[in-house]
Structure formats: structure tokens, C-alpha cells
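Figure 2 data, in text form.
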Amino acid sequence: MLKDKTAVVLGVANKRSIAWATAQELSEQGVRLLLTYQGERVEQSVRELAATIPGTICLSCDVTQDEDIAALMAKAGESSGGGLDFLVHSVAFARSEDLAGSFSSVTREGWRMALDISAFSLVALTRAVAPLMEQRGGGSVVTMTFLGSERVAPNYNVMGVAKAALECSVRYLAHEFGPKNIRVNAVSAGPIRTLSASGVAGFKGMLEVMSERSPLKRNIDAHEVGRTARFLLSPDAGGITGQVVYVDAGYCIMGV
């Protein structure tokens, strides 16, 4: 069902990225990929990964810059012959000092940066990609979130607030773009060893708690998240929008 579709995937940093696992799952079903990178620090890594999937295109994009987003969509539309089908948003950032210590010590700038990159970017990207999806008769957007949006996760701090804003944005975007047959959903992943997770103090303890208390008594891997994202993007999930789907071995249902 996904053969010859085109997806823009944001957030690939290295081979352990959830975004990369999602890209691989899409590619296996025939989806043509456009991967983004920000700056020279990750460009080489993204290009090396892209080279393993023939036909994959790499494009630069700083999600804090509206002109970068506009340029990305223009180039993506041109390279796909007009229109896009899917957008995978796996972008989040907070300064290390805002992920440690007390939550109330977050600075105004740290708060602004975390919410801009981690939440507003979804709004800006969905708004920009919508005209391209309309050319295909509709499309689907998936973003990545975490349980820290609704429960306290020690040392997650301002990122929890950003993820709460992200999930709320998913609902409002789903409502706005639904009449254009554009669906917007989120996958709430359990803790996975990724580059971004390494910035959260006590992350190893989070993995241990999840494996001990989740109904499945284990942790998850990035490809389980990727397969769920692929499902949400696909026509099989055509009646699903505005939802947060949990892929966390059932941990979110536990009270104690």
C-alpha cells in the first residue's frame, strides 16, 4: 500500500535514532525517503545512512527558521514530482542545564528553545507540508512523544512541558487539517537508548524501572516504534487522527 509514496523524515541523527528506524520501516514497504539534517555535525552521519537506501535524498533544514522549512518543502516537492504523502517529525531539544536540577530553575530562554524546537516545529512543518499533501489527495503526519508529557519523569523537566504542548498541538492540527484528509498522530515511545536520551540524567534507571514494572516485563526497541509509526501513516490507519498511541510495553497503564 505504501509503494511509490514519498515521506520527509526529520530527526535522523545516527543509526540508533527512532527516526532512522521509522525510515527503514517505511523504505521496506517501498516508500521513497527524504531525510533532513541540521548542520555539518550530523550531515555526514545522515548521508552515510541515506546511502544504504538507494534513491534516498538528504536535505538541510533548521526547524527554528521558517525560511529553511519553506525551502525544504519546495525542494521536497520538486524532487518528488509534486506533492508529498508523509511527514515524520522526530525532533526535540532542550539544553542540558534545563534537563538537570530543579524544574523551576529553567530559564526563560531555555523554556522558549525547548518548546520552539520540540513543539512549535510540528505546527510550522505541518502547515508547510499541507499544500503538498493536498496535491496527493491527503496525507499523514506522525510525531514522537513520551510519557513525561503527562507524568513527572525525574530530570525530564522542561522537555515534559514541551511534549505536553506537542501532544496538544497534534489534536488541534488533526482538527484543522482533517477536512483536507490530512491526519496527524503521535507515538509515545518508552525509553530507548538514543542520542537525545543520553542527555537525560538517570536514564539507565528509567530503563530498569520500565522493564521491571511494565506488563511485558521488558524494554522496547526503536523498530517497534517505527512499525507503529508506519501503521499510523498508512491507509490501514485511515480512520485514526489526533491520537497518541503508546509503544512502551504497557508501562503507561500501571498505577504503581
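Caption note: The radius of gyration is 17 Å.
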